[in-house]
Design brief:
The chain is an alpha/beta fold. It has a single domain, classed as Hypothetical Protein Aq_1857, Chain: A (Sandwich). It is about 15% helix and about 45% strand. The chain is built from two helices and nine strands. The protein has a four-stranded mixed β-sheet with strand order 3-2-5-4. The longest helix is centred in the N-terminal third of the chain and has 14 residues. The chain is globular, with a radius of gyration of 14 Å.
């Protein structure tokens, strides 16, 4: 299954890497935090880790560490603008619940 990107997410990632002037792709992971227990973390990758799983789609590489992968398997990453807000949106089939503020989730 892996990680899936919408065209909007891929376009945003490619634009940002081009603007930075360097980067191999995007790292997607989870960390323990928040009301519900887990939160997504994103960072741009300049050097991959040896144990990363790499998913390539729409010309973008997404790097996921082995500990985060079970929580992210099947996730679709989108990028959307809604009014004055813009950002990545996660559609994760593993989520059981999210907190009221939308910053964390439970698996």
């Amino acid at each position: 299954m892996g990680i899936m990107l919408t065209q909007q997410a891929a376009d945003h990632i490619n634009r940002y890497i081009e603007k930075r002037g360097k980067g191999l792709g995007l790292r997607l992971g989870v960390r323990t935090t928040g009301c519900s227990g887990m939160a997504y973390k994103l960072e741009y990758v300049d050097e991959p880790n040896a144990d990363d799983q790499v998913f390539e789609q729409r010309g973008v590489r997404v790097y996921v560490d082995p500990k985060s992968l079970p929580f992210l398997e099947g996730t679709q990453l989108d990028y959307a603008r809604e009014g004055l807000n813009e950002g990545f949106k996660f559609s994760n089939p593993n989520e059981k619940a999210t907190c009221g503020c939308g910053e964390s989730f439970t698996v």
